[in-house]
Amino acid sequence: MKEQMRALSLILMVMASGTALAVGPGKTLEFKGSPMGTVIFDGTAHKNAGLTCSDCHNPELFPKMKQGTVNITMNDLYAGKYCGRCHDGKKAFLIKDNCTRCHHKPGIK
């Protein structure tokens, strides 16, 4: 997988509950359940990194595709689970100290 991949966004978005939505190229999905700010998953960014849905949504990484069916914590991410598998600072940007790459607060860019 390429460095541009933003799998961390995927993990963080699953932390909030909601309905299942397809987030393909050209779409974004927002999860507003985090106190750190809304988590935004960008389907285009992941497509541009050369990924397909099945790269993450598979029995090994994300077996469930319905939003809110997987409880993900930052500790999971730091341990290399879920999006943390690729967002390790080698394959894709490092999760730690990059909060604003996924979490967005209103009025802060």
UniProtKB/TrEMBL annotation:
Keyword Signal assigned: yes
| RNA-binding as UniProt keyword | no
- What SUPFAM superfamilies is this protein classified in? Multiheme cytochromes
* One Pfam family of this chain: Cytochrome_C7
What Gene3D superfamilies is this protein classified in? Cytochrome C3 (3.90.10.10)
Coiled-coil parts of chain:
none
The record's keywords, sorted A to Z, are:
Signal
Q: Which domain of life is it from?
A: Bacteria
The secretion signal range is 1-22
UniProt xrefs under InterPro entries: Cyt_c7-like (IPR029467), Multihaem_cyt_sf (IPR036280), Nanowire_3heme (IPR026352)
Which parts pass through the membrane? none
Q: Where is the Cytochrome c7-like domain?
A: 39-104
Classification via NCBIfam families: nanowire_3heme (TIGR04257)
The name of this protein is C(7)-type cytochrome triheme protein
Classification of source organism: Bacteria, Pseudomonadati, Thermodesulfobacteriota, Desulfuromonadia, Geobacterales
